[in-house]
Automatic annotation (TrEMBL):
Keywords: Membrane, Transmembrane, Transmembrane helix
GO cellular component, one term: plasma membrane
Keyword Cell membrane: no
Protein name: Bile acid:sodium symporter
Source organism phylogeny: Bacteria, Pseudomonadati, Pseudomonadota, Alphaproteobacteria, Acetobacterales
Superkingdom, taxonomy of origin: Bacteria
Protein species of origin: Acetobacter estunensis
Pfam families, sorted: SBF_like
Transmembrane intervals: 31-51, 63-84, 96-116, 128-151, 157-177, 198-217, 223-243, 275-295
PANTHER family (UniProt xref): SODIUM_BILE ACID COTRANSPORTER 7 (PTHR18640:SF5), SOLUTE CARRIER FAMILY 10 MEMBER 7 (PTHR18640)
This protein's record includes keyword Membrane: yes
Length: 318
């Protein structure tokens, strides 16, 4: 099976290249910083506007499945991250370890979790509801988890007021105004998807520009990139093993097992980068999001292979 890299990841890599060669400096810094804040608020407003309340209510009937997936996302991942940090504290720098722990506290993806579950012949309606519930819960749970986890590790995050103003308030406003703007937002999903991704690119450029000015690439040798990739692969492998065999031990059906595997092992880049921009000091955001960016591509590659394998197994059973 041929593998094509995610086009959005290629855009992110190009953004890193531009930030490395032409970082924003001087008078451009306040402009890009303000633009990033506005785009983050707009992104979460549109997420609230697009979210269908009916789909959430419909999916609440499978609450045991959803709790299992949420447990993998918000409990298993942080425990694994803390365990790796305790076993190998010197493998990564402190800022990069903060990025790994931040990655562990993020919610699941939506689009790719549903897509891989569908390819693998899993429980697609449950995947829709679980992935959506994970993203909603993540807006509230992730900042709390990050604060708890990093407080134990000596890290610092942004204040609660920034979280409320930039994340929660726009999301709630989108939900309140959904009767008027929800249908328009769903009709223009593709256009708004480009807007969301453009917002992330602006946030990444702003964060990495400051990191480059502060000597990012002098502080991060190639061996650190290899170590980050190794830690990401270890996290993903551990979660995949736990979700696969844990689902079988708990007696879930094959369709539900597939849903748990794909929804429970994914981490969102789309919400993660804006959250990092809000939660962490601007000087450290560039390093913090590196583990997430690498994990994003690794999870797409591995889950694509697994989805095809599950699909072939389903065809052979039929």
């Amino acid at each position: 099976m041929s593998f094509r890299p995610d086009p959005f990841l290629l855009c992110l890599l190009a953004t890193l290249g531009v930030a490395t060669v032409l970082p924003c400096r001087g008078a451009a810094v306040p402009f890009f910083t303000t633009l990033a804040v506005v785009l983050i608020a707009l992104m979460f407003f549109l997420q609230g506007a697009r979210l269908s309340r009916a789909a959430v209510v419909e999916g609440m009937t499978a609450w045991k499945l959803h709790l299992t997936i949420l447990g993998c996302t918000f409990l298993l991942f942080p425990l694994l991250g803390l365990g790796l940090r305790a076993v190998m504290p010197g493998l990564l720098s402190n800022d990069v370890w903060m990025g790994v722990l931040f990655l562990c506290c993020l919610p699941s993806t939506v689009q790719s979790s549903i897509a891989f579950t569908s390819i693998a012949r899993g429980n697609v309606p449950a995947a829709v509801c679980s992935a959506t519930a994970s993203n909603i819960a993540g807006i509230f749970i992730t900042p709390i988890l990050v604060g708890l986890v990093l407080a134990k590790q000596g890290g610092q995050t942004g204040g609660g007021l920034s979280i409320i103003l930039q994340l929660l308030l726009p999301f709630v406003a989108g939900q309140v105004l959904q009767p008027w703007v929800g249908e328009w937002a769903r009709r223009n999903r593709k256009l708004l998807s480009f807007s969301d991704r453009g917002s992330i690119l602006v946030v990444v450029y702003t964060a990495f520009s400051e990191a480059v000015v502060n000597g990012l690439w002098h502080r991060l040798p190639p061996t650190q990139l290899a170590a980050i990739a190794a830690v990401d692969c270890g996290l993903l492998a551990a979660v995949l093993l736990v979700t696969r065999y844990g689902s079988q031990m708990m007696g879930w059906s094959r369709e539900d097992e597939i849903t748990i595997i794909f929804c429970g092992s994914k981490k969102t880049l789309a919400s993660g980068v804006p959250m990092a921009n809000v939660l962490f000091p601007s000087a450290t955001v560039g390093l913090v999001v590196l583990p997430l960016m690498l994990y994003h591509q690794i999870q797409l590659f591995v889950c694509a292979i697994l989805a095809r394998r599950f699909a072939r197994e389903a065809e052979s059973h039929e």
